[in-house]
Amino acid sequence: MNDLIPPRLRDDCFAMPQGVDWVPVDTALARLKAALVPITQTETLPVGSASGRVLASDCHARRSNPPRPNSAVDGYGFAHAATGAGVQRLKLVAGRAAAGQPFAGFVPTGHAIRILTGAILPKGVDTVVLEEDCATDGSAVAFDGPVKPRANTRKAGEDVAEGALALKAGHRLRAPDVALLSALGIAEVEVFRPLRVGVLSTGDEIVGNPAEPAEPHQIYDANRPMLLAMAERWNAVPVDLGHVRDDPALIAAALNRGANKTDVILTSGGASAGDEDHVSALLRARGNLSSWRIAMKPGRPLALALWSGVPVFGLPGNPVAAFVCAAIFARPALSLMSGSGWVDPTAMTLPAGFTKSKKAGRREYLRARVGADGQAETFASEGSGRISGLSWATGLVELPDNAMEIRPGDPVRFLPYQGFGL
To answer: Chain-centre distance of CA 273, in angstroms?
Structure first.
């Protein structure tokens, strides 16, 4: 199936309506969600090798779990109809029932059998009494009645019945899902192939390799390794497209390489409209650029375009802004394109451990973490050049578009990194 071609996006899929200038975050997310389509190429994998992959078709149980009625405890099994109130004394049959060692005979009414956890209920047994509630001399067992019918037993298929839907298409498999499918006799699954995400850095000021010397006017590339790591955490195949100088020909060549071997490209730097913003200029000339000015801080410029049919996300060059834009916009977009659907970040309400006066007009994301007192603490500086704040934080505090005064103890919305899959 490797020769299948996934659906292509319309050339104008990212276009905003005329007259739209500053785009609210929610509007941008909604339009992005409407514009994208998932990749449809699939492959079949053994269940044990499919963790992290997205199911391309529904999975139905090949057998019930448990496959037969069995005991939930170690104890003694018998027919409930032969018991009643008061002290019950039942003669023991020879032998026992254990997991993997079923009892082949029949337990007569009024008799009991030694049974262990997970053992299939022998014929004539529908109820089990807990070992700790019994007394025995090896030939008989005694316990206090009455006992509830079917006590300490599991029904066949009480977890999942044969033929039942176990997992739906679009579900990303985790270790617990691998366990479930294996228990249901499902050996192979049809999954979407992983999304290939190319990452390109641009800028004359960037030194791509931290092992190389850097002049005072140069900075080491933080965005490319960060975005590659984010793509990997999102179960994509990261493709390093390298770093290129602010040269339109070099940038175009890198985008061509990316379009030939990836499904989506993330660039950083050159996404604004300045003299050296060659990414925007190229995408405008050859990629049908839609330059979204998002009403958010940090972030704002987000260039969206198609290059040879491949979506390009032009992220800001500032690492803090690139991280926030990738988490807020690229993460749900890549999830949708991978076949697992649009995913919103996990959010929780926490008391603020800070003071802030916020103006109206744009959404703000503050680097934050949860303190020992359960309050959301924010990084000492809101400066978007402070990369250390990204490492210090364990999430983002999201402040709404409207103006607000925040005082310690006020409820705020906290988005943990884990909720972004990071």
So the answer is: 34
Residue 322 burial (C-beta neighbours within 10 Å; 0-12, 13-18, 19+): buried
Give yes or no for residue 386 having a pLDDT over 80. Answer: yes
Closest among 104, 105, 143 to 127, alpha carbons compared: 143
The pTM (predicted TM-score) of the whole model is 0.86
* Check whether domain 348-420 has CATH 2.40.340.10, yes or no: yes
pLDDT at 96: 96
CA dihedral 107, 108, 114, 116 (to 10 degrees): 40
Residues forming CATH 3.40.980.10 domain(s) in the chain: 22-41+194-338
In the chain, ranges of CATH 2.40.340.10 domains = 348-420
Give the residue range(s) of CATH 2.170.190.11 domains in the chain: 70-154
Q: Is the separation of the CB atoms in 263 and 337 below 8 Å? A: yes
Ranges of H-type helices in 202-330: 223-233, 248-261, 278-286, 319-325
pLDDT tens, 57-90?
999 999 999 999 999 999 999 999 999 999 999 9
CATH of the domain spanning 44-65+158-192: 3.90.105.10
Q: Nearest to residue 9, comparing CAs of 291, 306, 333?
A: 306
β-pairing verdict for 219-220 and 206-207? parallel
User: What is the per-residue pLDDT across 87-131, written as a single tens digit (0 to 9) for each?
Assistant: 999 999 999 999 999 999 999 999 999 999 999 999 999 999 999
65 is written with which tokens?
Answer: 């779990």
* Third-level CATH fold of 22-41+194-338: Molybdenum Cofactor Biosythetic Enzyme; Chain A (3.40.980)
Region class of 218: left (phi > 0), else alpha (psi between -120 and 50), else beta: beta
Distance separating alpha carbons of residues 270 and 108, to the nearest angstrom: 83
**Nearest by Cα to 93 from 77, 71, 74, 72:** 77
Q: What is the tens place of the pLDDT at every residue in 190-213?
A: 999 999 999 999 888 878 788 788
CB 61 within 8 A of CB 143: no
Q: How far is CA 157 from CA 160, 180, 186, 289, in A?
A: 5, 13, 15, 55
Q: Under CATH, domain 70-154 is a member of which superfamily?
A: Molybdopterin biosynthesis moea protein, domain 3. (2.170.190.11)
